[in-house]
Amino acid sequence: MKKLIMALLICSSLLPQLALSGSLEAGKSALTRGHYTTAMRAFLPLAESGNSDAQTFVGYLFEKGFGVPQSTLTAINWYKKAGEQGSYGAQHSLGLIYFKGESVDLDYLEAYEWFLRASDSEFPPSLYMLGLMYHQGHGVSVDFDNARVWFLKSAKLGSANAQFMYAYMLQSGEGGSSESHKAMIWAILSEINGKEDAVSITVPASMNMTEIEIETARKIGRECLADNYESCPE
To answer: How far apart are CA 226 and CA 217, in angstroms?
Structure first.
């Protein structure tokens, strides 16, 4: 009898967690199907109770105006609640809002701070944006060395945009000497991952390479992809 009571107590203690998980999944499912009003009904009570994932989704719905009147300011409010709890998705979304300056004043420094916070979770899009900010001098001084560091971190986590930009910097010699062989490898990887304009790097890079070197670069690229970027050149 004691064991049965203990089991019931354990199960009852799990009920709130199971209910929370169930509501969150229900919201995600509705969101995927485009049933935004249903998604909001599932997310909002969780968000109001402090669930950071739900807060991020509520922010997203308000930012896009899905199922609710569009409101960037309301989205920011929810994203900040989630971001303060460590949600890298919310942190990245805040960074993009301030970086683009859409419906709010453009603020590169604020964008930088949120991208930097998301980078603590090694979120590839935020790592890429930090590289872009250093490359273009948005809110920070142009710093090709730092741009390379952030692009490489993101590239090794599979970001096609970062792979492309790292290849571009290797080919152009920004932040170091021009290295067509390495540029070719990273450009090929970005192309595999969906970067259709990678040809703008592979073509000029190939002009400085022999057919054997090009084929070797393709082989290294395949090996690099197979071992999850562990063997990629830096």
So the answer is: 14
Take residue 82 and report the two structure tokens written for it. Answer: 């989630």
The pLDDT, as a whole number, for residue 102 is: 82
- Contact (Cβ atoms closer than 8 angstroms) between residue 133 and residue 140: yes
pTM across the whole model: 0.88
Does 220 reside within a domain? Answer: yes
Rounded to whole angstroms, how far apart are CA atoms 196 and 47?
A: 38
Q: Give yes or no for a contact between 192 and 225, defined as CB atoms under 8 angstroms apart.
A: yes
Domain membership flag for residue 6: no
Residues 132, 88 share a domain = no
pLDDT > 80? residue 7? no
Q: How far is CA 9 from CA 5, 15, 18, in A?
A: 6, 10, 14
* Those residues with Cβ within 8 angstroms of residue 72's Cβ, 6 or more apart along the chain or in another chain: 62, 63, 97, 102, 103, 104
Q: Domain of 198?
A: 122-234
Place of tokens 């040809």: 199
**Torsional sign, CA 210, 213, 217, 223:** positive
Q: How far apart are CA 76 and CA 74, in angstroms?
A: 5
Q: How far apart (Å, rounded) are the C-alpha atoms in residues 205 and 74?
A: 47
Single-letter code of the amino acid located at 135 = H
Q: Distance between CA atoms of 170 and 229, rounded to whole angstroms?
A: 17
Count of domains for the chain = 2
In 3D space, the residue among 143, 126, 231 whose CA is nearest the CA of residue 189 turns out to be 231
